[in-house]
Design goal:
mainly alpha; Herpes Virus-1; two-stranded antiparallel sheet; 44 helices; 11 strands; elongated; cytoplasm; phosphoprotein; Znf_RING/FYVE/PHD
Length: 1089
């Protein structure tokens, strides 16, 4: 602190303890040696100043004497003013220098000569009003006059004391506001009078200022006093008043000196606290703009210029207090004054240099939650509707379960407006911080990387909320970064080339070693970086690259994880609603029972939990689904798709792309694509209107590039989500979709059909624990797209080319497999639903059941309904697809392949038996449309498929060979139903009737042929189906002889030898010429017989 004194005083006025001890010795000799006192005047002044710092209170005797003197002086001053009123033409204020004289010296200007005026007491006068804060300039004259009083000084010096420092050395009955009379300093400074006047030099002014700060003035904190003094000094300088510039300079230095002392050693002076506390935090109301006295940037700049060595103890407490305040500030609280505090301080390079080195800027020991709560930027980003404090729920959604849509909508509007203002404020704050110096950009990007890295916890299935930041912080981070990226995210994506992909892969800023790569292992990616396959990033990474990847990473921990949380809450709410419904439905039975109170308690608990979960949902919805945020995020992610297209296909090679994938693309983390598809999945599904004016053509190009070369992306779920998004572009009765995108470029027209079929096959094995059921949903989306594309001529041409591709056979095989399973499962559940409907018709069905048993029964029925509805929807899609595919003669040839034809006919016969067979009455449920079950439509479609396939004789033979389900009587019954219900027109009925006749004839022929053959030798029988082999082959590993048709059907689903599980492909089969010859000879002999 002594160094600080020396720095401000510009010399050796205070040389430490040794000088102070010398001053003590000099002071002890003052009474006996006047000459020595004069020669050591500076040391004596310093000693008195030191004593004032050690002792801030005036003795009681001095206070009594001062009070008496002040009262006497006030009386004399009033007499003086009355006398002055009698003097015409004299309007100057009257001052009484002491109590022993009968005349007083009156001044009209600091530099004009004055005339003594006798005191008269005849007429009372009204005192001239005195201004309090604004300094009044002394009139310019040729000479600065001396005020004749106990402390003779020039008027300009008195102006500095009275108008700038608001200190009066003489009694004044009308002291201006916030001014003070200091009688205690008079005797001290009288000793400094030389040649009949006191010179207001720096030591004298220092002594007076210490005395002022040591005296308590009600309502005038020391900090505010010093700030106001500085402001008045600056006003005086700007007005070019006739004041000695050295005095003003000395005054400024002293103000800054004691400003630092008041902040760092507040116990030294009076009034050194505020509502924020003591010490440096006294500045908070002035930095926030809460006071009438302005703390100017000029003041802060000059203070920093003189105080650079001691910044930490001053500014660290301010930033820590800022964190503390913002941690308790809710969304509806006023955060902008505290944003102003940060912005005002960090605009100064000295403060910026300091703040980025503080522990509260970016500590390596902080976890994700602490990065939000305990860092400066984290606290600035924390106010949100989705924060963890629950304040938004209390204010807007306290009774969420009973709120109507209008009330919720109004709350959303209010919350989103506040949130938008916060985001804009944060953007302005960051832009100002980043412009100060280059080092600030590095500090911000380092903090951002840490905030993201330490919140990867949010992407786990089980999130530890004590270690992860709140949803509000994560969403604020996303929103602000997306706004920052608007500087380079333009419509044409012209700045994509400025993104250095190698920067992300190098791990220079972001640690991606634990991230799953698109088409490589982490070891392969690391090796590519080491051996130079992936080039090193540019030496100086541009800010666009840094901001782009930081934003992409922030979206990964923000939007997607928050949306997953919403889906989890939605499932919990569904369970709560089901439980409430069960309790309410059975309330009449338990409300007057001993268990009634228990059930009432359960009902109340469920309602409170429902309120809480819906409140959380609404607070997240208000921020996550804000339309402007969604639009800007969509624009950013479209920029990201253009970047990925540049990486995956830099030379614009025609599709499909060559294998293997480029290392630079293969080594990218999955989240680069995952975030894009996840975002557009939930936005297009739920909020498609926000994308109305956003061009999505590049998105479609990105999708078809991935689908046309699926080997480039290992994760099947990413491709499945792409299919789901594309399905939303298909028009339906629920949505008009966006069909233009399906025809937006030639690549889509050329490759979409085959890509969808291949996806249909590849999704069979996702690797997930629930893969068997997941594939049905994804294939359903694929079926919807294919059905729509069939209606477009350009795409229909591509359909006719698919039977030539090996993928077509696998596609049809999977289509048959799915159709059999989902329709069989759906109709089985439909039968159970019929049973439950009959049961529930009895009002006493649950008479003997406990509420838990009743709940279990209802839940099982609800589950059956959901499964039935889902499976019938899938079955309808599959039947639709088979119907339109079978309508083309070119495509039918693909269905008639040996490995497929028997499976198709068996499936068709089985469906027909279920619908028109003897057990069809089990399917007659109430409201069948509720389950997507329309037996008439289904029967009409099946019979039309029969007719289409029946044009090929091979299909008719296959139908009648199906020993499990084929019966002529079923087709006859079906014909009668079609006629009775008029499901077809006359031409269509005629075609089906002809089919029935052909089937009867083929059945007779097959029956006769079977009788003619008699018993088939075992060596000629297929080992799996026990039927006569027509094209025997040898399996290379097990050496088993099997019919080609049988093994090819098996290999469609499983490429292994069914007898020893060794690898097997169609190309590995060996023709068994010898067995084939024997079979042909045996058949010939049978024909001769």
């Amino acid at each position: 602190m002594k160094k600080m004194f020396l720095k401000f005083r510009g010399g050796g006025d205070d040389d430490g303890d040794d000088d102070n001890n010398n001053n003590d010795e000099n002071n002890n000799n003052n009474d006996s040696n006047k000459d020595k006192m004069e020669t050591d005047e500076q040391a004596l002044a310093e000693e008195r100043r030191r004593k004032r710092l050690e002792k801030f209170q005036i003795n009681d005797e001095e206070l009594i004497a001062a009070a008496a003197a002040q009262q006497q002086l006030q009386q004399q001053q009033q007499q003086s003013q009355q006398s002055q009123q009698q003097q015409k033409g004299n309007t100057s204020p009257v001052r009484t220098p002491n109590t022993t004289t009968t005349t007083t010296t009156t001044t009209t200007s600091p530099l004009k000569p004055v005339t003594p005026t006798p005191i008269t007491t005849n007429k009372p006068v009204t005192p001239t009003p005195i201004t309090t804060n604004k300094p009044v300039a002394p009139a310019p004259t040729t000479k600065d006059s001396i005020r004749q009083c106990d402390i003779p000084m020039t008027e300009s010096n008195y102006y500095v004391l009275e108008k700038i420092f608001l200190i009066y050395l003489q009694p004044n009955n009308n002291l201006p506001e916030k001014s003070i009379y200091l009688p205690s300093v008079n005797e001290q400074i009288k000793e400094e009078i030389k040649d009949g006047q006191l010179k207001l030099d720096k030591p004298v002014l220092d002594r007076i200022l210490v005395e002022r700060l040591s005296t308590k003035v009600q309502g005038v904190p020391a900090v505010e006093y010093l700030i106001s003094c500085f402001n008045r000094i600056q006003q005086t300088i700007k007005k070019k008043m006739a004041i000695d510039q050295q005095i003003l300079k000395d005054s400024t230095e002293l103000v800054l000196l004691y400003f630092g002392l008041v902040l760092t050693i507040p116990d030294m002076f009076q009034n050194t606290s505020s509502s924020y506390g003591i010490g440096p935090v006294q500045l908070m109301p002035y930095l926030c703009g809460e006071t009438t006295e302005e703390l100017t940037d000029e003041f802060i700049f000059k203070f920093l210029s003189e105080y650079q060595e001691d910044l930490t103890p001053i500014f660290e407490p301010i930033f820590l207090d800022l964190i503390k305040i913002l941690s308790t500030t809710t969304l509806t609280g006023n955060v902008f004054p505290y944003y102003k505090v940060f912005s005002r301080l960090v605009q100064f390079k000295a403060v910026s240099d300091l703040v980025v080195t503080l522990q509260c800027w970016n500590s390596p020991n902080f976890n994700g939650k602490e990065m939000e709560r305990n860092t400066i930027l984290g606290s600035l980003f924390s106010p949100s509707s989705a924060s963890d404090d629950g304040s938004t729920i209390k204010q807007y959604f306290s009774n969420a379960s009973t709120m109507n849509k209008n009330t919720i909508g109004d709350a959303f509007i209010s919350i989103r407006q506040i949130q938008m203002n916060i985001h804009n404020g944060l953007v302005d704050l960051l832009k100002g911080f980043l412009k100060v110096q280059q080092e600030n950009k590095e500090a911000f990007l380092s903090w951002l990387a840490s905030a993201v890295e330490k919140n990867l916890e949010r992407n786990k299935l089980q999130v530890d909320r004590t270690k992860a930041c709140s949803d509000g912080f994560a969403l604020n981070l996303c929103a602000v970064l997306v706004l920052l990226c608007e500087a380079f995210v333009d419509i044409d994506c012209s700045k994509v080339s400025m993104v250095d992909t190698n920067f992300l892969l190098s791990g220079k800023r972001h640690d991606i070693t634990k991230d799953t790569r698109l088409c490589a292992t982490s070891e392969e990616a690391d090796q590519w970086v080491k051996d130079g396959t992936i080039e090193k990033p540019l030496a100086h990474t541009n800010f666009i690259t840094e901001t782009f990847f930081s934003t992409l990473r922030a979206l990964h921990i923000g939007i997607n994880s928050t949306y997953e949380k919403l889906k989890l809450i939605g499932r919990n709410l569904q369970d709560i609603e089901n439980n409430k419904r069960v309790l309410l439905d059975s309330k009449i039975k338990w409300q007057n029972t001993p268990q009634g109170r228990l059930f009432e308690g359960q009902l109340d608990l469920l309602t409170k939990k429902e309120d809480m979960l819906k409140g959380i949902t609404y607070t997240i919805d208000a921020q996550l689904f804000e339309p402007t945020f969604l639009q800007k995020t969509a624009s950013f992610l479209l920029f990201a798709t253009n970047w990925i297209l540049k990486v995956i296909n830099p030379k614009n090679t025609p599709l499909p792309l060559p294998l293997p994938a480029p290392p630079q693309f293969a080594a990218l983390p999955e989240f680069c694509i995952e975030d894009i598809v996840d975002f557009f999945t939930f936005v297009i599904t739920n909020f498609s209107q926000v994308l109305q004016y956003i061009k999505l053509e590049q998105l479609m190009k990105f999708f078809i590039t991935i689908l046309a070369t699926p080997e480039y992306v290992k994760n099947p779920y990413l491709k499945a989500k792409i299919i789901e998004i594309i399905s939303q572009f298909v028009p339906s009765k629920y949505s008009k979709g966006n069909p233009i995108l399906l025809e937006c470029n030639q690549d889509v027209k050329d490759h979409m059909v085959l890509a969808l079929m291949r996806f249909y096959v590849d999704i069979e094995f996702t690797g997930g624990h629930n893969q068997f059921y997941e594939k049905f949903s994804y294939r359903h989306y694929s079926s919807l797209i294919l059905k729509y594309l069939w209606s477009i001529p350009d795409f229909r041409k591509k359909f006719t080319e698919t039977p030539k591709d090996p993928i077509f056979i696998k596609f049809i095989n999977m289509l048959i497999n799915d159709s059999i399973y989902v329709l069989d499962e759906a109709l089985a559940k439909l039968a159970k639903i019929k049973e439950n409907q009959t049961l529930f018709d009895d009002p006493n069905w649950d008479k003997d059941l406990t509420p838990e048993q009743r709940k279990e029964k209802i839940e099982q029925n609800d589950l059956n309904e959901r499964i039935c509805k889902s499976n019938l929807s899938l079955a309808n899609s599959n039947i639709d697809m088979m119907l339109f595919l079978s309508s083309d003669k070119t495509i039918i040839s693909g269905f008639m392949r040996p490995e497929l034809i028997d499976r198709i006919s068996a499936m068709m016969n089985y469906f027909l038996a279920l619908i028109v067979g003897p057990k069809c009455t089990n399917l007659k449920v109430r409201e069948p449309e509720k389950y997507h079950f329309n037996p008439k439509v289904l029967l009409n479609q099946l019979t039309e498929i029969y007719v289409n396939f029946g044009r090929d004789p091979r299909f008719l033979q296959s139908v009648v060979r199906d020993g499990r389900s084929f019966k002529n009587s079923l087709f006859q019954t079906c014909e009668k139903i079609l006629q009775r219900e008029r499901l077809k027109n006359d031409h269509e009925l005629d075609e089906f009737s002809k089919l029935v006749i052909k089937l009867e004839q083929v059945a007779k022929e097959e029956e006769q042929a079977e009788e003619d053959l008699g018993d088939i030798p075992d060596e000629f029988c297929d080992p799996i189906l026990s039927t006569l082999m027509t094209d025997p082959v040898i399996l290379p590993s097990s050496k088993t002889v099997i019919d080609r048709q049988t093994i090819l059907r098996h290999l469609l689903s499983d490429q292994t030898d069914p007898f020893n599980r060794s690898h097997l492909t169609p190309e590995m089969l060996i023709d068994d010429v010898e067995t084939k010859k024997k079979i042909d000879e045996w058949l010939a002999s049978k024909k001769k017989q």
